[in-house]
Amino acid sequence: MNILYISISGNTRSFVTRMQDFAKQKHSENPDFPIIHAKEIHDNSLEQAETEPFFAVVPTYLEGGNGIDSGDKEILTEALRDYIAFEDNATLCLGVIGGGNKNFNYQYCLTAKQYAEQFQVPFLADFELRGNSNEIETIYVTLSKYWQKHVS
Ligand SMILES: Cc1cc2nc3c(=O)[nH]c(=O)nc-3n(C[C@H](O)[C@H](O)[C@H](O)COP(=O)(O)O)c2cc1C
Questions:
Q1: d(CA 18, CA 145)
Q2: What dihedral angle (degrees, nearest 10) is formed by the CA atoms of 121, 123, 127, 130?
Q3: Is residue 63 helix, strand or coil?
Q4: pLDDT, tens digit, for every residue of 44-70?
């Protein structure tokens, strides 16, 4: 199963890498559990037309994002939004997973919710900061079930 993600300070990268390790372990116990192919998008990534379905994982950075003001403008992660908007990539996006920090109250994981709205895909899950092992296991199981239902 494929994941595209962006990470500014490393939390989302850590979450995805640890979920990949968990997927490998589950796959070795039972090959029905899919391994994860992950691709990190950077500001200087070349936009490419994807050929297979994918999930998108995006952390939240908002201008004025302090949980009190009504900041809702995405900053720093636009490269992933642009990548998904490139050619027909959005049609291959199965859903979005958001990273954030609950201290930001209603703005928690707002960027992922905005992607879901823009690309008309489901907001599938959220995790805080680097994600704990419970979040990694639960989200992996959710995504694998979704993948098996919609792709394999
Ligand atoms: C300047 C700044 C603004 C942020 N704004 C939000 C926010 O509006 N909502 C939220 O849930 N998290 C917010 N966060 C928390 C980040 O989304 C969180 O730390 C995330 O794990 C960062 O992922 P990354 O390390 O992969 O870049 C903000 C963090 C920073 C540094």
A1: 19
A2: 10
A3: strand
A4: 999 999 999 999 999 999 987 565 666
* CB 98 near ligand 1, within 6 Å: no
CA distance 152 to 138: 20
Q: Considering only CA atoms, which residue is closest to atom 4 of ligand 1?
A: 61
Q: Are 126 and 98 in contact (CB under 8 A)?
A: yes
- pLDDT tens track for 19-28: 999 999 999 9
C-alpha–C-alpha distance, residues 108 and 103, integer Å: 8
CATH 3.40.50.360 fits 2-150, yes or no: yes
What does the DSSP 8-state code read for residue 84? H
8 A C-beta contact, residue 3 and residue 15: no
Ligand 1 centroid distance, CA of 95 (Å): 20
Q: Whole-angstrom Cα distance, residue 88 to residue 103?
A: 35
